[in-house]
Amino acid sequence: MLSLTKPLAPLRHRNYRLLFASYLISMLGDGVWMVALPWVAIELGADNSGLSMVVGAEAVGLISCVLIGGALADRYPRKHVIGWSFAAAFAALATLAVIHVSGQLEIWQLVGAAFVLGAAAAISGPAADAFTPDLVPEDDLHAANALESIVRSLAVRMVGPGIGGLLIALVDSFAIIALNAVSFAVAALCAAAINSRTVAGAQGSGGDGEAEPEGEPVPYRQALRYLFGERWLWVLIVWSGVVLLLQSGPRQVLLPFLIHNDLGGDARDYGLLIAVTGIAAVVSSFLLASRKPPRDYPRRMLLAWTAGAAPLALMVFAPSFWLLLPLGAVYGFFSTAGNVYWSTLVQTSVPSSVRGRVISIDWLGSLALVPVSAALAGIGSSREFMIWLFVLGGTLPVLLTLVTLRWVDLRGLGAKGAQQPETQQTPEHSEPVVPA
Questions:
Q1: Euclidean distance between the first and the last CA atom of the chain, given in angstroms as a whole number
Q2: Residue 412 — left, alpha, or beta (φ > 0 → left; ψ -120 to 50 → alpha)?
Q3: Which residues on neighbouring strands pair with residue 432, listed in sequence order?
């Protein structure tokens, strides 16, 4: 049954409200910065290669630091990891603003700041995802993930870019840099205000339980042993990485050319398609947040991802731009549903002691293959080559899903909760051991 109040249930818990506020503020800043960054670089005289360096530096920061972020999230208090990463982003942007005022701002300084922002996102992201189950009871966890998905869609795809475009027209680049710096400072303060002494565990009461357990961190080799000992976990991470390899290049590189060259569209049409995709993602997240997840949601998750991937095969044959819009809506709706289910599954099925590293490995599997997919999409420019990439990107995920459903048993996942690793004594030393 649909409930209009269920999506807001996680906000009953003070600690989660603070984490959510930091997430919302930083996402809005990211949305503004995504639009403003190219214009700041252009104001500094950047050409195509210079702009590529600036944008690429953020991606390098993400990819190079995401595993570090997972390790930090499992070793240190997660609110500190999140807060200090936001503080580092604030410091980078504040320094950039000071240099801008002095009139000495150069491209290489913008590249450095972009790298720091990417690194900060790589560290705060896995920590925040791993921290959420410690702040809300399991009954509210699904709604929390859906609520965060709504914020991401609105802030990064709609509101943030809209504010960024408006600010570019009204104020100079210094004000935009300073505003983004302030957003990270406020987000860091929100994270710092979380009361660690009342953080509940994954099965806790949403902020009214005992503090996070403190103990010797599980070594990375044992976290990997756990990961590869759980077939469902590593298979689904590989599945999502392969699908991104097949789909991200056609969506990000070839789709604009399809709209421009074959359908006679322009940038406004492409922006409309992105907006429709974002609206569908918001609707999907709201519907999921309004009801409890079904018992077989791990299976539905895989089917939702597949349903979101399949429309790509049809986009290349669309006779008009307007037929792309429902295909984009299907992609936004079902891919978002799969992502929400996946976040809930990992948070409820992976032990807290290794959750940050598992999430960071999942992030790496997603991030590392996106540049490869873009490079593959740029190899050829013929219509036939484009058709092959779109068709393979939409049909191979369906075949992968059929194989995965036969090879991996998803029954019972997500309902049992994460079991904490036991402590095993050895003659030489004592350390937590994650069971394979």
A1: 38
A2: left
A3: 423
CB-based contacts of 4, cutoff 8 Å, min separation 6: 290
pLDDT above 80 for 7: no
Same domain, yes or no, for 197 and 227? no
Beta-carbon contacts of residue 268 (< 8 Å; ≥ 6 apart): none
Q: Do the domain assignments include residue 19? A: yes
One domain for residues 69 and 123? yes
Q: Give strand pairing partners of 265.
A: none
Say if CB 354 and CB 75 are below 8 A apart. Answer: no
Residue 436 lies in a domain: no
Residue 122 has pLDDT above 70, yes or no: yes
Q: CA dist 171 to 66, 197, 231, Å?
A: 34, 43, 53
Give the residue numbers spanning the domain of 381. 220-417
Please give the tally of structural domains in the chain: 2
* Token code pair at residue 370: 């996106």
* 10: amino acid identity, one letter: P
Q: Kindly state whether residues 172 and 224 are assigned to the same domain.
A: no
| Interhelix angle 231-249/383-407, nearest 10 degrees | 170
Which amino acid would we find at residue 206? Answer: G
Q: Is 266 found in the same domain as 160?
A: no
Residue 365 lies in a domain: yes
Paired residues of 431 in beta bridges: 424
Do 228 and 273 lie in one domain? The reply is yes
Q: Name every residue whose Cβ is closer than 8 Å to that of residue 73 and which is 6 or more positions away in sequence.
A: 81, 123, 126, 127, 130, 131, 355, 356, 357, 359, 360
Domain termination residue (choose one: 176, 202, 228): 202
When pLDDT is cut at 50, 70 and 90, the band that residue 418 belongs to is very low
| DSSP structural state of residue 261 | I
Beta bridge partners of 422: 433
Give alpha helix (H) positions in 350-382: 352-367, 369-377
Strands 422-425 and 430-433: what pairing? antiparallel
Per-residue pLDDT tens over the stretch 351-394: 988 999 999 999 898 888 888 888 888 787 688 888 999 999 99
CA distances from 42 to 46, 52, 173, 209, 423 (A): 5, 11, 11, 51, 56
Residue 211 lies in a domain: no
Weakest mean pLDDT among 12-26, 146-160, 223-237, 405-419: 405-419
Question: Exposed, middle or buried, 235 (CB in 10 Å: 0-12/13-18/19+)?
Answer: middle
